Inverse folding.
């Protein structure tokens, strides 16, 4: 069963941030040599919660696919790029995912292998990735802050961030929701900015390439903001130990 990992790293000092920026180029030579790794991407982030065109030099991410959950955990814990990043980061968090649906392409590939299963009962993650046409980049970024604001005020969202490969043009939105109903309520609200943005994209053909994927969240390691972003979803200790 394919496993997808997204590892987020926060860097505090200017020297550590400069190192992380340099690794956006340097790590490209090391990641392909990691045993068992499939598709991978190095990403930066935007300021605030990531949904802005202004780069955030403190937060970076590594996305990767693996043949199974056991291999993913071993490689994330021992492979050189992740060890290097953790050694310099003040905080890191990895979320483990199982693809449940995917359509579109990323760098000309279909990186996520969806597993046929019943609708997951646990937390779900949504990932949208697009290459924005330069001619409509300004229109695109006018829409994004409104969507980010609505997500931020949604009491159901467990985690959200905007990351990207190339500033302004190659963007990824990633969010985690407690269940499919909460995710659908946000995405399908006809009066909300998300629906408005989707309509604009479809009518104006804003993207050169796009991918939409959904995942079951199967695990995590580390913390973000000093806590687990999934802590609110966990049952009480008495229930877990019953």
């Amino acid at each position: 069963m394919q496993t997808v990992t997204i590892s987020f790293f926060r860097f505090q000092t200017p020297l550590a941030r400069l190192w992380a920026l340099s690794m956006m180029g340097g790590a490209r030579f090391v990641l392909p040599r990691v045993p068992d790794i499939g598709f991978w991407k190095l990403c930066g982030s935007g300021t605030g919660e990531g949904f802005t065109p202004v780069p955030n030099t403190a937060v970076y991410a590594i996305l990767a696919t693996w043949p199974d959950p056991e291999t993913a955990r071993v490689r994330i814990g021992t492979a050189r790029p992740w060890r290097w990043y953790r050694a310099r980061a003040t905080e890191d968090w990895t979320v483990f995912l199982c693809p449940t649906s995917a359509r579109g392409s990323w760098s000309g590939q279909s990186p996520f292998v969806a597993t046929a299963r019943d609708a997951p009962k646990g937390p779900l993650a949504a990932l949208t990735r697009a290459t924005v046409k330069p001619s409509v980049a300004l229109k695109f970024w006018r829409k994004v802050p409104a969507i980010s604001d609505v997500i931020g005020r949604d009491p159901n969202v467990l985690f959200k961030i905007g990351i990207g490969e190339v500033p302004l043009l190659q963007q990824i939105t990633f969010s985690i929701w407690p269940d499919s109903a909460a995710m659908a309520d946000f995405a399908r609200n006809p009066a909300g900015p998300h629906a408005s943005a989707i309509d604009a994209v479809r009518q104006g053909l804003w993207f050169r390439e796009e991918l939409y994927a959904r995942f079951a969240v199967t695990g995590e390691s580390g913390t973000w903001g000093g806590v687990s972003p999934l802590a609110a979803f966990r049952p009480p200790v008495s229930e877990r130990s019953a």
Remarks:
- The chain has one domain: 3-218.
- Strands lie at 3-10, 40-46, 55-66, 91-104, 124-132, 159-166, 170-177, 207-222.
